[in-house]
Amino acid sequence: MTYIKQLADHQDEIVTLKGWVYNSRSSKGLHFIELRDGSGLCQCIVSVDEVGEEIFEEAGKLKQESSVEITGKVVKDDRSVGGYEIHATDVNIIQIAENYPITPKDHGVEFLMENRHLWLRSQRQWAAMQIRNTIQFSIHQFFQNEGFVRTDAPVFTGNAAEGTTTLFETDYFDEKAYLTQSGQLYGEAMAMAHGKIYTFGPTFRAEKSKTRRHLTEFWMVEPEMAFYDLDMNMDLAESFIRFIVKSVLDKHESELEILERDTTFLKKAASEPFKRISYTEAVEQLKSDQTKELLDTMESDRNEELSSIKKELDEIKKEHGSAKKWRKAQIDQRIKEIHLRIDQVEEDLRNIPVWKKSAANFEWGNDFGGSDETILTMQYDTPILVHRYPAEVKAFYMKRDPEDDKLALALDVLAPEGYGEIVGGSQREEGIDVLKARIAEHGLPEEVFSWYLDLRKYGSVPHSGFGLGIERTVAWICGLSHVRETIPFPRMLGRLRP
Ligand code: 4AD
Ligand code: MG
């Protein structure tokens, strides 16, 4: 069996591909079957002269998503998707699919989400999952190259790590347990045993609002390093993100093309130093005239885009009636894309007034909301490292800035183009008395943290770490507007199936 991805190594040979029909059309003694096999797409040409009447007729019954084995000669053809096509000598049907629900009708997002188990086969979804895989692999590569030890944190925990409002509680025999919000506290213990470690696993937060960047179950990678201060932590976060972006750019030109991803900003993230600003500078930026102008311009641009894209929609809908079958398929695809884009633009237009208000009313001491991050990142070409946040809005374990006790030695990385926070981290408090006081201030029960406090009793050292959310990173790199398309089966408020 040969995979489509390997066809370049088999030019002019006879191979057998096994896969699913992505598209098919017929004309005068020929079937053009676009086959997908998980590794790519390939056009297979079935000619009656080559395969004979019987097989030709059978192949004509192949509807979308039917499973099939096609044997034939590999012919180089630059116009063909993937650069090669198959001139079939044999077609062996495995199963004829029922009427496939996903295409060619145009569907709303809710329908697609209900059919996520099938939607995953579509090109854009396929491309995003391929990139997700590379992101995860490159995370391991980076840390393993840097001498980090991968370690696993438990999913059932007895204590909160990131505030008590988003805890999922569950019965654990006679006790209550929580699903982990972060592996960090366990990572700190392992860092005291191994120096530099990272955890990588699913984390859970009962996020009670629907936003484009919140899931209730998401994957997080969390490095933790003994003897690292905030600056070392920021340097690590920057080179780590750069490595991931480079890996995707190196490997996924064609997938990024399928996603119609403009890679200008990704290339900058792969080569230029990230912008570093303090929280206080970021607040000034947010409230500046420059920000106001940017939002005004954006609003008029989006309005223009909306009217032109709606015009295109009207025009191609008219064309649809008289179009040939192959053209109809193209139009259907385009209609689907336009609807998605309209959804996005309309969402922006609903958001812009909210962003304007949020920026104008922002006060020092508040935490940045999604809108504030979006506005900030739209003003820089590279990711931004924002450091030194008001301690009040951050977690109990963060060390205060020795220069200013109101500030925590925290860092967030905000991804450009409006994406916002992909990393949160900090230097940790290493003094036991201060840490006990913080636990009390946050209204947390000290007993459940006794093991964590031990880390400050036995050879406490300055240490730091951060967490990178996989789904938000995939969304940014793939240019997806919502995290629901960044994980095979997203879990969000109101979404537990499929
Ligand atoms: O900023 P957060 O809450 O930081 C922590 O959990 C720290 N304990 C990490 C550490 O220092 N080891 O979350 C880290 C990242 C966010 O920047 C974001 O990318 C992602 O996790 N994240 C979410 N992703 C999707 N849905 C959610 N509800 C998320 N909450 C956080
Ligand atoms: Mg955060």
UniProtKB/TrEMBL annotation:
Main location: cytoplasm
Top-level taxon of origin: Bacteria
Keyword Protein biosynthesis: yes
InterPro entries attached to this UniProt entry: Aa-tRNA-synt_II, aa-tRNA-synth_II, aa-tRNA-synth_II/BPL/LPL, Asn-tRNA-ligase, Asp/Asn-tRNA-synth_IIb, NA-bd_OB-fold, NA-bd_OB_tRNA
Protein localization: Cytoplasm
Keyword check for Iron-sulfur: no
Annotated GO CC locations: cytoplasm; membrane
Positions of the Aminoacyl-transfer RNA synthetases class-II family profile domain: 131-498
Coiled-coil blocks: 299-348
Major enzyme class: ligase
GO molecular function: asparagine-tRNA ligase activity; ATP binding; nucleic acid binding
GO biological process, alphabetically ordered: asparaginyl-tRNA aminoacylation; intracellular protein transport
EC number: 6.1.1.22
Record key words, sorted: Aminoacyl-tRNA synthetase, ATP-binding, Coiled coil, Cytoplasm, Ligase, Nucleotide-binding, Protein biosynthesis
Quaternary context: Homodimer.
Family under the similarity heading: Belongs to the class-II aminoacyl-tRNA synthetase family.
Record-linked HAMAP family: Asn_tRNA_synth (MF_00534)
Protein name listed in UniProt: Asparagine--tRNA ligase
Annotated gene: asnS
